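Deliverable D4.2, example record:
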Amino acid sequence: MGGTFDVLHRGHRLLLKKALEVGKNVTIGVTSDAFARELHKPHKIDPFESRKMELQNLLRNWGVLSRSRIVRLDDRFGPTITTSRIQAIVVSKRTVKTAYEINRRRRLRDLKPLAIVAIDLIQAQDRKPISSTRIRRGRIDREGRVVRSRGQHS
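Output generated by the structure prediction step:
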């Protein structure tokens, strides 16, 4: 699995838990700073080392760091198109098209296609997907709770 993992939130945690459930060992790709800039996110993104460290701390707290390998992603594919050691990929339904493209590229290299496990996007309290962008904009918190602005009443 892979992603930017900026502002680690409940959706990221559920995706990680699914990957850890599916695989004995898990490779987690984290976008490099250069690749993250290419994604043209409408907000600041924490540096790679900060995002990686936050992810490592979470995995350590869960007691699964020894089963996890974090790699830097310089593109959408990372090691998935070059190694036969990876057998499955866990994605959100938003990024499932990338998983199909990975399998197309694996076939061209005579690699076995990956099993694709796609999970639903995790909804915030307002029934819109949780995302780092919405968190950075102050609309929701990392758990998906709506953040009330001044003057707004429940």
